[in-house]
Amino acid sequence: MRILGIKNAKIDDTTLDVHFENDMVVCFEDCWLRDHCRCSKCFVTNTNLRANHLIELPDVTMKSVIVNGSELQVTWSDEHESTYDAEFLAEFEMKAWVDRRRINHIIWRGDEISHKVARIPVDKFLKTKQGAKAIFQSILDYGVAFIEEVEPTLDGTAVVAEALGGIQQTLFGGMWDIKVDESLNDTAFMSIPLPQHTDLSSFTDPAGLQLLHSLEHTNGEGGETVLVDGFYAAAKLKEEHPRDYDFLTKFPVEAEYKFNGHSFRHAAPAIELDMITNDVRQIRFNSYDRSPMAFTNGDDCRTYYRSLKHFASSIENKKNHWQFKLKPGVVMVFDNFRLLHGRTGFTGRRVLGGTYVSRTNWMDKARVLELIH
Ligand SMILES: C[N+](C)(C)CCCC[C@H](N)C(=O)O
Ligand SMILES: O=C(O)CCC(=O)C(=O)O
């Protein structure tokens, strides 16, 4: 690979304008440059951490700058010298820096991705980098992947969860199952249909991934899984009702969940944007656990209902749904920040095993596999 060179660099008061050989120009402030000095007094290479606190950052000016091929040297007013690689500096061209932080989701509707999502045998997922990459890439692209030939037990499911980033503990414990239990006061534990929702909208940190594994369904029918791409629904809302989209990206919808002696409450936008890329980052939506809210004015209140209704009708539109029956041996893993899920009503004895993985932990795995920045 050719090393990127620097054509020239010019000090303009407190700014350094760097012209690269590829004609790109990036301007750096002196405080930034001093903070990013990579000498051994300022930076610890093996831990990738700064050596000094921000408060100790001296109030200095640039005395001179020398360009040396693919390196740039700055001498400071306190005689400190800093050397920067062109490749390092080029990373901070704003558009490229933002683009590296984007996840290039493939937006979908209906069953159009059923032949595209990864379906990988568990051994290949656990033991090969190629298998792991295929699963994580599918989660990044479509929000869902399937791990096959898994032992149809909670323990078998736990092994998969560990490899996806680790089991996220919640009020339901680590691994849980879903079966009809009239004593539990939650629709998940009944046999009625469940409309599309994300899980744990009342949490400060909802599950990143959710795993579902059909362990048993006997003497009955129904209980099919329904998935919908929340990012598709958000894009559609933006196109058809831009003011509603804008409202839902800003207005804190409060959710609450009181269950089994627990009490959760959190307010956040139904469509949360990433503050760096401005792309949709997270959908939180469960029609049932919305808290009763007070509103600043009537307009906000009416907009809350109108925009959530518009959003929900896209989410509940059958044309956008992908519906299928989960089978023992197949662990479905999906992105709870993106997809909404539900199920059709059922009869018979049905047991699903599952668990959650936190977003930070699965993103760590995807980053180590070099699938995201
Ligand atoms: C999957 N499992 C049965 C464990 C939990 C379902 C939780 C659904 C809940 N109302 C929520 O807060 O999202
Ligand atoms: O029973 C199912 O298939 C899904 C249950 C569910 O959506 C939930 O518990 O949140």
UniProtKB/TrEMBL annotation:
Its cofactor is L-ascorbate; Fe(2+). Belongs to the gamma-BBH/TMLD family. Coiled coil: none annotated. Its EC number is 1.14.11.8. Converts trimethyllysine (TML) into hydroxytrimethyllysine (HTML). Pathway: Amine and polyamine biosynthesis; carnitine biosynthesis. This is Trimethyllysine dioxygenase, mitochondrial. GO terms for molecular function: iron ion binding; trimethyllysine dioxygenase activity. Residues 10-89 form the Gamma-butyrobetaine hydroxylase-like N-terminal domain. It holds the Pfam family TauD. It catalyses: N(6),N(6),N(6)-trimethyl-L-lysine + 2-oxoglutarate + O2 = (3S)-3-hydroxy-N(6),N(6),N(6)-trimethyl-L-lysine + succinate + CO2. Gene3D superfamilies: 3.30.2020.30, Clavaminate synthase-like. GO terms for cellular component: mitochondrion. Keywords: Carnitine biosynthesis, Dioxygenase, Iron, Metal-binding, Oxidoreductase. One of its GO terms (biological process) is carnitine biosynthetic process. Residues 120-355 form the TauD/TfdA-like domain. It is an enzyme of class 1 (oxidoreductase).
